[in-house]
Amino acid sequence: MGFKKLLASLGAGGASVETVLTEANVVPGGVVQGEVRIQGGNVDQQIEALSVGLQARVEVEGNDQETKQDIEFTKQRLGGAFELKANAVHAVPFGLDIPWETPITHFAGRQLHGMNIGVTTELEIARAVDSGDLDPVNVHPLPAQQAVLDAFGQLGFRFKSADMERGHIRGTRQKLPFYQEIEFFPPEQYRGLNQVELTFVADDREMDVVLEMDKKPGLFSEGSDSYKSFKVGLHDYQGTDWAAYLNEWLSQVGSKRNWF
């Protein structure tokens, strides 16, 4: 983004700020590198605090309605207070850690629609705080996540949509206040299914993979969901045929319920 004038309500002398990401492509557990550049105004100003963080726009359900909420899920302060001289440019480099649970925003060479994740910049002057624009970050799958996603593709599943929802999935290692769901359309061989939803919850060693199988509503019954969760090591996932593993579970559940 270009320089943005901050704290205009404070009158003349307001600083402006620009955040530049040197590499916007990352994976969970990685680091976003960048630099915050602050342009001084007409007078010297005391900068009390400068920080960067990661923000996601998530869905919040309640009172029979769905709203969107911006959640900052990590934050890093960049040094202490300093004086910004008039018309001077003060540059502060940073490396912002990406939490292992961070949802992916890109898959199979495409950006997942609705995945709004980016770096926020916050500048504090004279006890007033103003934030800059969101600088998008492209979060790509970890190799273990890619292996599971590829397995769905090998079975003929097609990407439908993705979203981020506020809440917690019980029985997982989740620490963030929200999680991602990636939805797939099933191929013809799973004709009793409406869709399958996939969630990753990772840490630095392994990840929980949570699947939700959505059955098509029948003539005399409403749709029902079946769930499965399993753990995948981030460094020893190569020994499993994930397409065969997923197909076996889908086929077992489907045949027991006469879906397929």
Automatic annotation (TrEMBL):
It holds the Pfam family Spo0M. It comes from the Bacteria. PANTHER family: SPORULATION-CONTROL PROTEIN SPO0M. This is Sporulation protein.
